[in-house]
């Protein structure tokens, strides 16, 4: 009981602030001319990158579109939505499927404990490659599938590895979306707003930003200060009971 009271005392101020950030966040479609200072944006991006992610492999990138020429074309690629046209900053949030191996090695190089524990070396040096590697024409994926099925039958539950490039894309997209939400909430905490846009021409945007086949735009994020008519309707959600299941 004492521990619960102590936790409540410590957490209450943070909870109030967090609730205020989450409840005041809206998808804003029109912004004022007020700029987002560079230091504020850097801090928001830092907080974005503190998002939880699988094995700390951080498969995300953020392209802040500041060039006027590129910005004009990016707005066109967003179908000239008001959010894109009026945003102080326009950001492409990108998931990568091709850097997991290099990031696994980077984790070992930058690990905060020295020497690096053996179980950490084994995890990033052996297990991670087994999770992701597919081989030519997915030949290794078939072998992984067989091993996984055998394990389930003989030993019990086991996490499925990634069999296809689509599996890896889903993994990278899921992790990147978590970082995007951190960025959205960080902007709100700084007094700015945003609009996460899925309505854009991804092939055209990838061409504009010179992205490769292993870079996937999860969303375009328009950010800025909320204009008086920036919110189009009152916020509402369906009843919580419709979605939450206790089993």
Automatic annotation (TrEMBL):
Keywords: Oxidoreductase
Record CDD domains: MhqN-like
Record flagged with keyword Transferase: no
Transmembrane segments: none
Keyword Oxidoreductase: yes
Domain Nitroreductase: 23-224
Family the UniProt entry places it in: Belongs to the nitroreductase family.
Protein name stated in the entry: Nitroreductase family protein
Organism the protein comes from: Psychrobacter aestuarii
């Amino acid at each position: 009981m004492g521990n619960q009271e102590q936790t409540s005392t410590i957490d209450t101020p943070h909870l109030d602030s967090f609730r205020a950030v989450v409840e005041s966040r809206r998808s804003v479609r029109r912004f004022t001319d007020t700029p987002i200072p560079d230091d504020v944006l850097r801090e928001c991006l830092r907080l974005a990158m503190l998002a939880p992610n699988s094995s700390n492999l951080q498969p995300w990138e953020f392209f802040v579109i500041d060039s006027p020429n590129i910005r004009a074309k990016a707005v066109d690629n967003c179908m000239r939505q008001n959010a894109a046209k009026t945003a102080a900053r326009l950001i492409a949030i990108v998931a990568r499927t091709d850097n997991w191996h290099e990031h696994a090695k980077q984790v070992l190089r930058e690990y905060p404990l020295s020497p690096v524990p053996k179980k950490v070396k084994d995890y990033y040096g052996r297990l991670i490659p087994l999770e992701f590697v597919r081989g030519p024409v997915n030949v290794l994926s078939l072998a992984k599938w067989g091993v996984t099925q055998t394990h389930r039958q003989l030993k019990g539950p086991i996490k499925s590895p990634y069999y296809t490039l689509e599996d890896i894309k889903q993994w990278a997209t899921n992790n990147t979306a978590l970082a995007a939400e951190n960025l959205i909430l960080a902007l709100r905490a700084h007094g700015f707003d945003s609009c996460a846009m899925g309505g854009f021409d991804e092939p055209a945007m990838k061409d504009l930003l010179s992205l490769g086949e292993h870079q996937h735009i999860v969303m375009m994020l328009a950010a800025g200060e909320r204009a008086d008519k920036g919110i189009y309707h009152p916020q509402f959600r369906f009843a919580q009971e419709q979605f939450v299941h206790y089993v």
